[in-house]
Design brief:
Layout: E1 14-18, E2 25-26, E3 31-34, E4 38-39, E5 44-45, E6 50-54, H1 57-64, E7 69-70, E8 81-86, E9 92-98, E10 115-117, E11 130-132, E12 136-141, E13 144-147, E14 164-168, E15 173-174, E16 177-181, E17 185-190, E18 222-227, E19 232-237, E20 247-253, E21 260-266, E22 278-283, E23 289-290, E24 295-297, E25 302-304, E26 309-310, E27 315-319, H2 322-329, E28 334-335, E29 345-350, E30 356-362, E31 379-380
Parallel strand pairs: 6-7, 14-17, 16-20, 27-28
Antiparallel strand pairs: 1-6, 2-5, 3-4, 3-8, 8-9, 10-11, 12-13, 14-15, 17-18, 19-20, 21-22, 21-31, 22-27, 23-26, 24-25, 24-29, 29-30
Length: 384
């Protein structure tokens, strides 16, 4: 739990550790050396059991009802975090590098959800195996329900997660409105004990492009997932509680055929100033394309193109420092202005309607090539 929904110091940050071996382990001499500082005393973690360490054990006890160990110093990063656990000999026992946005679950970033590993035997340094917790504690902080399961088995599955998750909270859908892309899936989860279902049939909502229906209302814990393959505007409800506002909408945006593609990224050159950061964009279409009011965006960058004509099969370079690009590569580039590329970033190109026409969410660790992380190599797109 790297960013609990607290105003201020995030005192209830925590890390859960599991012993997956068949023997008890003494943590005496073990330490966290990145992310936070923690030197363990003679703490025994039994086979198949957990220990939890936290920033403030009193605040943690107030939230979760049991006592955790308090780490020595530091806070978990809310952006790009790295946790390193070492044994008494100083060797790395485990390492996790996490992010706060796609491809990592974004609702763990201040919305009340912890990050949970779907299987303790999976590689926990791969984002594919981490999901938002689905275990409600019943506690509300800053108007957000706390979802986490410190010290007990995680409930999430390693099955492919849905693209979007909607929670049923007594008599409302959270979020109530969604805007998604054609072909993406939505998962509803009911753990309220209420007699809910999902009704989005054309019989009830004639304007819906297609029907979706979870079945009769049920008080059981259930999960319903539906993939939306037809663009349009959808309405739905929980049939026994629609009169009290248990309704939702989903707008499915059509896929946009684009001729503008991000083909190369240099986000971390070997220099200390990262002066050679650049993004290569190519018009792969058969006609010239005017980029007026098109936009390139990342976590920090928000660049709006001027009246610029990019010919077919022509390449355009956006850069942090065009003079440096000219000096080292001998080519012209356009300055994107303020901001820089991050080690974990979300790049997008948008047309003049604000629709995303190309998107790259890259990561500086496996499964992405790690040679691009400061070793002098760029990411290049290879179409197969």
């Amino acid at each position: 739990m790297y960013n609990p929904p607290e105003a201020g110091e995030d005192k209830t940050e925590f890390i859960e550790i599991m012993n997956i071996t068949k023997a008890n382990i003494s943590l005496s001499g073990f330490s966290f050396t990145s992310g936070i500082e923690m030197n363990f005393s003679d703490t025994i973690i039994k086979s198949g059991s957990y220990i939890v360490i936290t920033k403030d054990k009193e605040a943690f006890t107030d939230s979760y009802g049991f006592e955790a160990l308090q780490w020595d110093k530091g806070s978990l990063s809310d952006v790009d975090g790295k946790l390193i656990l070492r044994n008494p000999q100083g060797n790395i026992v485990d390492i996790v590098i996490y992010g706060n946005s796609h491809p990592w679950p974004s609702r763990a970033n201040g919305y009340g959800y912890s990050l949970e590993l779907c299987d303790p035997k999976k590689n926990n340094n791969k984002y594919q195996y981490w999901q938002e917790s689905r275990t409600s504690t019943g506690r509300v902080i800053e108007n957000k329900i706390l979802y986490a399961s410190p010290g007990i088995q995680n409930e999430i599955s390693c099955d492919n997660p849905a693209d979007h998750i909607v929670d049923l909270q007594s008599f409302s859908f959270v979020p109530k409105t969604l805007v998604i892309n054609e072909g993406e899936s939505v998962r509803w989860t009911n753990k309220t004990g209420k007699n809910h279902n999902i009704v989005g049939t054309k019989e009830k909502y004639a304007s819906n492009p297609e029907s979706f229906y979870s079945g009769p209302p049920s008080t059981e814990n259930w999960v319903f997932t539906y993939r939306f393959n037809i663009p349009g505007f959808y309405r739905y409800d929980s049939e026994l509680y629609e009169n009290v506002g248990t309704k939702g909408t989903i707008e499915v945006l059509p896929k946009i055929k684009t001729n503008l593609v991000i083909t190369e990224i240099m986000y971390d050159d070997p220099g200390s100033m990262d002066s050679l950061e650049f993004v290569e964009i190519v018009n792969v279409g058969e006609k010239p394309l005017n980029l007026n009011y098109f936009a390139f965006q990342s976590k920090e960058i928000n660049y709006m193109f001027p009246n610029y004509l990019l010919n077919n099969n022509e390449t355009l370079i956006l850069a942090r420092y065009p003079d440096a690009i000219k000096k080292y590569f001998g080519i012209d580039a356009i300055a994107w202005g303020a901001g820089s590329l991050k080690n974990l970033d979300n790049l997008s190109l948008k047309n003049f309607f604000g629709q995303i026409i190309d998107k790259v969410d890259y990561w500086y660790n496996s499964p992405w090539p790690i040679q691009a992380a400061g070793y002098g190599k760029s990411y290049q797109f290879v179409q197969t």
